Amino acid sequence: MSYRENYENQDIALIDILDTVLDKGVAIKGDIIISIAGIDLVYVDLKVLISSVETLVQSSLDDSLNSKTLDSEKEALERVTK
Amino acid sequence: MERLLYLYGITLKEEAASQSISDLKGIDGKAGLEVLDYGWCSAIVSPVDEGEFGEEALETNTQQMEWVQEKAYLHHEILMSLKNALTLIPMKFCTIFQHEESLKKKMDAHEKEWMTLLEKLKGKEEWNIKVFNHSDLLKEQVADHHPEIQKKKEEISQMSKGMQYLQRKKLDQSIEQQVLQEQQKYVRQLHSEWEALCEDTAEKKVWNKNVTGKDADMCWNGAYLIEVDKVETFLKNITNANEQGEKAGWVIEVTGPWPPYHFSSLSKSEVD
Q: Where in the cell is it found (chain B) (predicted)?
């Protein structure tokens, strides 16, 4: 068995996905896109998004919002989306 | 209602042409994906409703964590399917254009940069690595064997009882700090080994325990862009490192291959 088969497409925690697809890159990207595409690009209100992600990912002191809870929510999502 | 375009990613036209992408559903779960060609590149988009993805709607929706979770997850799922089929420059969540015209402008203006980037990403994969440490053993080791700590212990034992109490507290802090340093040294060493096998790497923020929900400390969080041919060696190295570090409380978690999220942004200079 190859090493790849061992690791490939293992379950990824929802929090990892959120951290990656939302992260501060959104902010930077927002700025960049605004500056290159004029004003008619819709983008997520950065402050709002970043604060919601930070609540989730960084400063979460609420134990109910940790990775495990998110994973159970992800399972529920998978049932819906598959 | 305005037809907004949600952009998932950019690929080479020749690759897009050979794939049946329209079978995939977009972020709203209804509209199929569309491929729009611009020169040598293609944009993969789907139309979305202004009622859900317009600027005002997003302001409300993004404050609802449930909406963000569901849609961000879908975004990722769609990009996973795309990256399995194509060389892809993945977009971040909610990259939306109000008009096809503005998408065209962006595509035309950056065709060369997209091409260069796609060339760089071709035949490579992104893998993410997180390194965790159960610090009990390391703490014990530092407390019992680190020369500076031993010296301080020796000094404390000569002090009066009251002083000893205060100094012990300080000593605990020194031990914590030393443990942190040892952890950093360890993961930097691992990282440099992995880096040598990779085209590019990106350091990510480590999460605290509230976020991970684990007992162990997260000591490293990084993304690695690596040639497909080298992935096996890379993963072998990680497996070995995992076995070697296990007894000392180290755990390495690998996920992938991801869409190359961490290696796909245009630098500022290219954008101006």
A: Gas vesicle
Contact A19 B75 (CB under 8 A): no
Inter-chain CB proximity A49 and B265 less than 8 Å: no
Check if the interface score ipTM surpasses 0.85: no
pLDDT at A64 over 90: no
Per the structure block, which two tokens stand in for B138?
A: 């390391």
Min Cα–Cα distance to chain A from B35, Å = 19
Secondary structure string (H, E, C) spanning B140-202: HHHHHHCHHHHHHHHHHHCCCHHHHHHHHHHHHHHHHHHHHHHHHHHHHHHHHHHHHHCCEEE
Whether the model pTM is above 0.95: no
Q: What CA–CA distance (Å, rounded) separates B238 from B224?
A: 12
- Residue B1: the pLDDT is 56
For chain A, what is the mean pLDDT?
55
β-pairing, B41-49 with B34-38?
antiparallel
Interchain proximity B69–A52, CB inside 8 Å? no
The average pLDDT across B142-152 equals: 91
Contact residues, B window 220-259, toward A, CB-based 8 Å cutoff: 231-232, 235-236, 239, 254-258
pLDDT of residue B170: 92
Asked if A50 has any chain B CB less than 8 Å from its own CB, the reply is no
C-alpha angle B221/B248/B157, rounded to 5°? Answer: 110
Alpha-carbon dihedral sign for residues B11, B16, B20, B25? positive
